[in-house]
UniProtKB/TrEMBL annotation:
The lineage of its organism: Bacteria, Bacillati, Actinomycetota, Actinomycetes, Kitasatosporales. PROSITE patterns: PAC (PS50113). Pfam families: PAS_3, SpoIIE. It catalyses: ATP + protein L-histidine = ADP + protein N-phospho-L-histidine. Residues 153-205 form the PAC domain. Its EC number is 2.7.13.3. InterPro entries: PAS, PAS-assoc_C, PAS-like_dom_sf, PAS_fold_3, PPM-type-like_dom_sf, PPM-type_phosphatase-like_dom, Sensor_kinase/Photoreceptor. PANTHER family: PAC DOMAIN-CONTAINING PROTEIN, PHYTOCHROME-LIKE PROTEIN CPH1. It comes from the Bacteria. Keywords: Kinase, Phosphoprotein, Transferase. This is histidine kinase. Residues 1-20 are annotated as: Disordered.
Length: 432
């Protein structure tokens, strides 16, 4: 398929074969050096920093391999039939004629989209049917800007192949002008960047794992059920002060999730002690007592009083603020009570709001949750602006793939906010 140039963009002279060959040699030499450094790295496979470094090496090698293939194409010219899986098979082109409504696709583009090369190319109006619904507005905006305002296309979207697989495609293009300067057609180059984006996500995820707050000391003795509870995907984090280091670090808050009674009901709790810095073993003692009361079937509205009775017989300070939530997966019923602690936040449909319902006569509230709802419990005397910021995160939290992703978003956004040091946050997403 022949490429086109707009009237005001004369063709540039291609580089000579000697200069391209020199670039190829430099790219291959650099790729060999990077591979050698990667192989010499002896980082522990279980170390988050080591995983992050290896992901960066892999991404760099991936990009250098692609660069080598691009330069080889410049030297050798287009191959008649690129082998499956090669870089050249992941780059295709298309031209849509606005006057005749005809389309011309390269064979590579048919392969990228998983379509039969013998089939008829889709028109510009039909092409969005291949694109994921949520990405269609972005594609429409790019095409409109190109055809109406003459802006170059440079953006990504996801396409669905006939076999159901999803691929990420990067499109670049420009309008092709006729002799009177009006747009006659649109010419584009499309590249399958799915593997590249997967490598970049690996780098991002391993980098984020380095920033994840370390688990609190009680985590190893009374493990938080990060595999979830019936009907819930769970995640939580504790943010000690930046100056709290070493074995004498103190922790003024706790979080937990455990069975409530003998069935599938779950108790979710987050709270803090009256003293801002409590010995590291304190939360473990409290969580142990809390789990015992929950297993005995103590309801959320009574847990505050029962814990106060138990703590009076210990050296621990009293609980200053806490929220206790009971969740029944069969009915999706949430009951909650808070003893001077922050009320839970409920995120649904991309919006967030405060308490799940008004306080009842027993001092607790009730609400029916829905699949996909996200409940957020937190400690700390956050300023109203920080709470409003939590609620403003609703669209991002709704797009989180799991509860752990949601916790990562919250802690990253609020790290350093007033009252958030020593704070705990717990996220529960309703899965069914």
């Amino acid at each position: 398929m022949s490429s086109h140039l707009s009237a005001d963009h004369p063709a540039a002279q291609p580089p000579g074969p000697g200069s391209v060959e020199a670039l190829i040699s430099q790219a291959r030499r650099l790729r060999g050096d990077v591979d050698a450094v990667r192989r010499d790295s002896q980082d522990d496979a279980t170390d988050p920093r080591g995983r992050w470094q290896r992901a960066l090496y892999d991404l760099a090698l991936h990009q250098l391999t692609d660069l080598d293939a691009h330069l080889a194409q410049l030297r050798d010219g287009p191959a008649p039939a690129p082998r499956a899986g090669s870089l050249l098979s992941r780059v295709g082109s298309a031209e849509w004629n606005l006057l005749t409504d005809e389309a011309e696709w390269s064979g590579e583009l048919f392969r990228i989209l998983g379509r039969d090369p013998a089939s008829v190319p889709l028109s510009l109006d039909e092409f969005p049917s291949l694109v994921l619904t949520e990405d269609r507005p972005k594609l429409t905006a790019m095409v409109t800007d190109c055809l109406v305002d003459g802006r170059p296309i440079d953006g990504e979207f996801r396409v669905v192949r006939p076999d159901g697989t999803v691929r990420t495609v990067h499109m670049m293009g420009e309008p092709v002008l006729d002799t009177d300067g009006s747009t006659a057609s649109m010419w584009t180059v499309l590249r399958d960047v799915s593997e590249l984006r997967r490598s970049q996500r690996a780098v991002s995820e391993t980098r984020d794992s380095l920033r994840r707050p370390p688990p609190p000391p009680w985590h190893g003795l009374l493990r938080f059920p990060e595999e979830g509870r019936p009907g819930l995907d769970l995640a939580a984090a504790h943010l000690p002060p930046a100056s709290a280091t070493g074995p004498r670090s103190r922790y003024g808050g706790w979080y937990d999730a455990c069975p409530l009674g003998t069935g599938d009901e779950t108790l979710l709790s987050v709270g803090e002690f009256g003293h801002p810095e409590t010995e590291a073993h304190g939360p473990g003692v409290l969580i142990g007592a809390l789990r015992g009361l929950a297993l005995a079937g103590t309801r959320p509205e009574r847990l505050g009083d029962r814990l106060a009775e138990l703590l009076r017989a210990t050296a621990l300070p009293p609980v200053r603020g806490a929220v206790y939530c009971g969740y029944r997966p069969d009915s999706r019923m949430l009951t909650w009570a808070h003893a001077a602690g922050p009320a839970p936040l409920l995120f649904r449909g991309g919006t967030g709001r405060g308490p799940a319902g008004p306080d009842g006569p027993s001092g607790q509230a009730e609400a029916i949750l829905e699949a996909g709802d996200l409940l957020l419990l937190h400690t700390g005397t956050l300023e109203p602006a920080a709470v409003e910021h939590l609620l403003a995160l609703a669209p991002r939290l709704a797009g989180a793939h799991c509860a752990q992703d949601a916790v990562r978003i919250v802690t990253r956004e609020l790290d350093g906010s007033p009252g958030f040091e020593h704070a705990c946050v717990l996220v529960a997403r309703v899965t069914r």
